[in-house]
Amino acid sequence: MKRKFELGNIVITSKVYSAIAKEDISRGLARHMCCDWGECADPEMNDYAVENNDGRILSVYRDHKGARFWIITEADRSATTVLLPEDY
To answer: For 78, which DSSP code?
Structure first.
């Protein structure tokens, strides 16, 4: 799989570290940077953001136990945050 955009600095919230397995986080980041948006409600907006290098990118995944977590890359590609929905 080839990365389609820069992730910038990767930040993982403390709640994710305690709730989501590291393997699931790694798998989510790999999917995110290859434009597999998971359960994202608006994949077209993510596609536009990647194609035009304009806009924030949000992916939604589930870990092996079914817990949801998000990965958000900022519009300027300076940072990507892995968080639980309640962290937002």
So the answer is: S
Alpha carbons within 13 angstroms on the beta-carbon side of residue 24 total 21
Is residue 41 a contact partner of residue 57, using CB atoms and an 8 Å limit? no
What does the DSSP 8-state code read for residue 38? B
Domain annotation covers residue 46? yes
pLDDT reading at 4 higher than 90: no
Q: Could you read off the pLDDT of 7-58 as tens digits, one per residue?
A: 999 999 999 999 999 999 999 999 999 999 999 999 999 999 999 999 999 9
Residue 4 located in a structural domain: no
User: Is 26 a domain residue?
Assistant: yes
Residues in the chain: 88
Q: How many structural domains compose the chain?
A: 1
Q: Is 2 part of a structural domain of the chain?
A: no
Count of C-beta atoms within a 10 Å radius of residue 73: 25
